[in-house]
Design goal:
The protein is mostly helical. It is built from 13 helices and no strands.
């Protein structure tokens, strides 16, 4: 009883919040091994739906397309978002800075319907004026995802750049390093954890997007969320539970590896240097 009295309200709310988030995922993973076609009726343990999943070529092609789009979108978003964050944090006194910052972060608060519709109109007018893109598909989805993912990366990286000690860069340039060399040899290694976090965030957002991809995609270019949403409207298939279980395991593994690598890098950075003899 004494231990129960010592439990704080914040601890209880933390446990309740974690249970609220992860119990549905645990139920989904449990029912992915259900042999019944009805997802809510348990009929015994079976892995038949995992076999059926790997036989579904439409679903597998959608997974492959979503992974490629997410990878390229996250990579491009890190490049663009890092440059935008560098401009916002280092060049603080120039005309139009407030407008530039607002335009960079606008996708964070812009409804996805508005973003998707505006990009659709852009691609349609570009096709009429210059003849590109002739067909909407993987490239248009990649451009659209890069557009809104760059804003998230810019916010993550800019917060890390504001904490960076400028004296390190100034010391490197005093020793003869050019600004370009200082950026790649000093700044980039220091903000690597923020770059990794921004890449993972952009990858997740791109992989999960449904609304914007529905606007800018065309025939034969269906991402995983689009295929899952179309199949769920006709009834939830146990194959979706199996697919969701594999995605949860893959994301958990990637997140653990990223956390472990960043933790090792942080410990190495904080490790005291050996005394010079």
């Amino acid at each position: 009883m004494a231990r129960l009295r010592n439990v704080s309200f914040s601890t209880v709310m933390l446990v309740v919040g974690l249970l609220f988030l992860y119990i549905p995922m645990a139920i989904l993973m449990f029912y992915s091994f259900n042999s019944s076609r009805l997802v809510t009726v348990w009929a015994g343990f079976s892995t038949r739906w995992y076999v059926e999943l790997f036989r579904d070529q439409q679903l597998l092609s959608a997974v492959w397309m979503s992974l490629r789009i997410a990878f390229f979108s996250a990579t491009m978003a890190v490049c663009i978002g890092t440059l935008a964050a560098f401009v916002m944090t280092r060049f603080r006194r120039f005309r139009g800075r407030t407008m530039l910052s607002s335009m960079i972060t606008a996708p964070l608060v812009m409804p996805e319907v508005i973003t998707g519709l505006s990009l659709l109109l852009l691609f349609v007018h570009m096709a009429q004026i210059i003849g590109w893109p002739a067909d909407r598909g993987m490239v248009t989805i990649w451009i659209a995802h890069t557009t809104f993912c760059s804003a998230y990366v810019a916010v993550v990286v800019s917060s890390r750049l504001r904490e960076l000690d400028l004296s390190i860069e100034e010391a490197a340039m005093d020793l003869g390093a050019t600004p370009f060399k200082t950026f790649f040899l000093i700044t980039i290694p220091v903000i690597t954890p923020a770059l990794v976090a921004g890449w993972l965030l952009a990858f997740t957002l791109s992989l999960d997007d449904l609304v914007i991809a529905s606007f800018v995609s065309g025939p034969g270019a269906s991402t995983l969320p689009m295929v899952v949403f179309s199949s769920v409207r006709l009834g939830v298939s146990p194959k979706i539970n199996a697919l969701a279980t594999l995605i949860i395991l893959a994301v958990s593994l990637i997140a653990f590896i990223a956390w472990y690598l960043m933790r090792r890098a942080e410990e190495k950075r904080r490790r005291p240097l050996p005394d010079a003899e």
